[in-house]
Specification:
This protein is mainly alpha-helical. Among the domains are: 7-61, Winged helix-like DNA-binding domain superfamily/Winged helix DNA-binding domain (Arc Repressor Mutant, subunit A); 71-113. Helices cover 52% and strands 7% of the residues. It contains six helices and two strands; from the N terminus they run H-H-H-H-H-H-E-E. The chain has helices at 7-17, 22-28, 33-47, 52-61, 75-83, 90-112; strands at residues 116-120, 126-130. It has a two-stranded antiparallel sheet with strand order 1-2. It is elongated.
Length: 143
């Protein structure tokens, strides 16, 4: 039988699973640190756990928590939303846009920087060829 936890208890338990202190949880959820303790205690009692880490384990086993930290505001958070079939949150969409912009910037820098290889032509003059782009996963054919 699956224990029934409120959304608030699940959120607090998720933050506990991330290693957050009661003070950090309180700040994130706009509670007082003393308000976090009874919520954790209720979750522990409902799950039949001995302590908070045991409650996290039991919640994961019961399928109430997926056991992995939820990421938001970056590329990993964006792809996690997609894997779960969700519409990505605004923070994750912005994180994905930032990630893509950074990848484009790195590719441009690699194409225009000193990452050009020089080989000798038949006349001894160096011939510049673009270096392989590590982002592509391809290597340039040597001639």
């Amino acid at each position: 039988m699956r224990p029934t936890l409120t959304a608030h208890e699940l959120r607090v338990l998720e933050l506990v699973s991330l290693g957050r202190t009661h003070q950090e949880i309180a700040a994130e959820l706009t509670l007082t640190p003393k308000g976090v303790t009874p919520t954790v205690s209720r979750a522990i009692r409902k799950l039949g756990a001995r302590n908070a880490p045991h409650a996290v384990l039991l919640a994961c086993r019961a399928g109430l928590l997926d056991g992995r930290p939820q990421r938001h505001g970056d590329h990993a958070g964006f792809t996690a939303h997609q894997r779960r079939g969700e519409t990505p949150c605004d923070a994750c969409v912005q994180g994905e846009l930032d990630y893509q912009a950074e990848r484009r910037r790195i590719r441009r820098e690699n194409a225009t920087s000193g990452l050009l290889t020089a080989s000798q032509s038949a006349h001894g003059a160096p011939v510049a060829r673009p270096a392989p782009d590590p982002a592509d996963g391809h290597t340039a054919a040597a001639t």
